[in-house]
UniProtKB/TrEMBL annotation:
The chain crosses the membrane at residues 36-59, 71-88, 100-123, 129-153, 165-186, 212-234, 429-448, 460-480, 486-504, 550-573. GO terms for cellular component: membrane. Residues 281-303, 318-356 are annotated as: Disordered. SUPFAM superfamilies: MFS general substrate transporter (SSF103473). It is a multi-pass membrane protein. The keyword Thylakoid does not apply. It is found in: Membrane. InterPro entries: MFS_Riboflavin_Transporter (IPR052983), MFS_trans_sf (IPR036259). The keyword Ribosomal protein does not apply. Residues 285-303 have a biased composition (Basic and acidic residues). This is Oxalate:formate antiporter. Its main location: membrane. Keywords: Membrane, Transmembrane, Transmembrane helix, Transport.
Amino acid sequence: MTCKCHEVYSSFLGSCVPASPDKASAGQRMRRRRKILAACFTLSLPGTLLYFGNLLPYLVSYYHAHTPRVYMHPLWIASGFQICRLLGVVSSSSIERRVGLMSTVALGGIVVCMSILTSYWAVAEPLALVFTFGLCYGFGSGIMFPMIAKAGLRHAAGRSRWNDALMAAGTPLGGLLYMIVAFLVINPFNKDPDLHHNHVEMFTDSQLISKVPHYFLVMACVTAVLVGLGVGLIHSDNLEQSRNPEEYAGEFSDMEEMVLYAAQDEELNGYKEKKKAAQYGTLKQDGDQQNDNHENDSIKASEKQTLIEKSREYWLDYTNPPQATADESASRPERTKPKHNSCDQNEGFDMKRSGSYNKIGDEQRITATLIPEAEPISEEAPRDLSPSEVLNTTQFWILWFSALLLGHTQFIHENLYKQYGQREISNDAILLLPGLLGMVAIAVARPISFQACERVDTATTVLFMCASVNVLMTLMNVTINLVPALYVVCTVLEFAALSGVYVLHHLAPSRLFGQTYSGSNVHLVCTAPLLGSLAEPAIVQMLVGSCGWNWLFTSGSLTSALALCGLICVPYIQKSRLQ
């Protein structure tokens, strides 16, 4: 931990604590790298959304050759996955409280692996494949994603916002892997589609079609290896910690790690510079414990352990203060609790009374609790809005409808770019290239967009990315008929631009409505593409059947343009929250 972080942390404890050296021990660095590696292994399970567009032409050809009893378009797989993934994310915290973090991760991994494995038999019936490869796979990956991020990335060195960017960029790398596996298993000899039926190009080679079920078998094995490596690395670290507690004596627990993470926030540091004094008052301690003999540059393990014990005492005392008698209240120095934006000055912050207490992430909840307000709250000062209050604001509904419109653009691009390109490009390997490069583009663009939100502002970043989505979707519609090679380039850039949708969903609500209820507000915004996905397969089939592919992608350009106009017209009454 850095010196600056220890200085802020010492202000929480009410005592001056010397700074530890910047470089951790070799064992600590190795354990952190191991947890980051474990998180990357399991975060590489991107789900169906990122690589399904590369798999869709093979499934359509398979169902054309093997007429099922009940036909359902394979696009419903992507819709079912998107719906159940959000349900899995919402329910992951409840499952964790009952069975623990590691058991939750293992449970999600088992569901993911079994859903892919059973798809080997379920592929014969589209409805069964929607259930296994769509609903079950989505729910399992939704359970795993937040738990792996919590277990692994919270231990990343540096505590910078690059950790969030790493979590956002980890999933496309798995999509790249699964696309390569699909090509090598199903079409290793790069055979071209040779049948045009109902506006769709299809494969008729019997040998190629017969390999479609085997893809799910190979994919299940690859997924099991990734899940096993990730869970095994995290479990081995926890097991080593339980067997050798003396090696971990000087390290911080999860609670202290989260407090230190909150302490590094720039907003908190700004408040600290303005206050020039401890905001939390004095803790219970004797006068002999207060001394200024902290001139050393490093801190000993025993002193660090004392720091951890004090932090636990402070944390428990703050969240659940004991009932003091009248004599103890008179003898004990008064300690002022922080005033929070979302609370009345005369009431304070009651965590048990907050309806969204269990829905807010650990880091966000602690940050929202510990960051004080330097000046008294005025009536004009912006405050954090609860979900019920957010629903009454114009900003939310503009943001919600923008997410709904961009969700349509994202759905048709990620799932149909290959089928659209097959109209002019028959080479399957060339159409694999934009998918592979698109995954790399997402992995690069998401960290850059996160940093742009920090260095510029969220509003400008979202508007720029949304405008890029509109321009590139329009160019895709034009270049496919004029210069097919440019279509590949525009497809790759469109993957990168659509990373702005991720920023819109996860950062814009917290910047507009505050951090306290950010988890619940993000889920509210995410309901927009969730509802849209229920109708997307029907919309796609209707537009392609009646108007053609060009009009389908033109609709993507129009919806992104409407979303851009809506975001531009947002009344920035709370513009300070976006910057």
